[in-house]
Automatic annotation (TrEMBL):
Organism of provenance: Maribacter orientalis
Pfam families per UniProt: DUF3124
InterPro entries for the chain: DUF3124
Listed name of the protein: DUF3124 domain-containing protein
Domain of life: Bacteria
Length: 179
């Protein structure tokens, strides 16, 4: 290896090391405001009336925090709700995306009118790690419909860490009987 490659390698390694050190500062004592990310919002409203008999409902469990060692110690997690249209030909229509907390109270509604996902399109909503509004028993209720038989995928991915260990896990949505 020649000297110029060694210098470039050393500079890159130094930058990576300094970046790592800067990201390791203790954030426990700092209060970080919770910002609700909406950059994944689709500006694609549906103009047609919804046929109530077509609407199906899915429940997706979210763990925005989990117990760690005792009931009084919790680890906050980042959770992502993912809605995926698995059809290669037909659109998926979504009329409700509501986030509920452990007590069953509505925390927020993510859409105020129906939207659609094109074939093979996905959309996701992030519950940030600092957002403790949901709790360990948080969940999403999603109302959706289609003009043809579809099998969309509704999942949540939770990511967190304890010390130097990181972990992630998923949950799947289950279809509910509409009342």
């Amino acid at each position: 290896m020649n000297k110029s490659k060694i210098v470039v390698f050393s500079v890159c390694l130094s930058v990576l090391f300094l970046t790592f050190l800067g990201s390791c500062k203790d954030l426990k004592n700092e209060e970080i405001p919770v910002e609700i990310l909406d950059e994944h919002m689709l500006d694609r409203r549906v103009n047609t009336a919804i046929v109530d008999s077509l609407i199906r409902q899915v429940y997706v469990p979210i763990y925005s925090d989990i117990y760690n060692q005792t009931r009084d110690t919790r680890t906050m997690l980042t959770a992502t709700l993912s809605i995926r249209n698995t059809s290669i030909r037909d659109s998926l229509f979504v009329s409700t995306i509501d986030y509920y907390n452990t007590q069953g109270d509505l925390v927020r509604s993510y859409i105020d009118s129906p939207i659609y996902l094109k074939p093979m399109e996905s959309i996701d909503y992030v519950i940030e790690q600092q957002d403790n509004s949901g709790g360990s028993g948080a969940n999403f209720l999603i109302d959706w419909y289609s003009k043809k038989q579809l099998n969309p995928l509704f999942q949540a991915v939770m990511v967190g860490g304890l010390g130097a260990q990181a972990f992630s896990f998923t949950t799947d949505g289950i279809e509910l009987e509409r009342e």
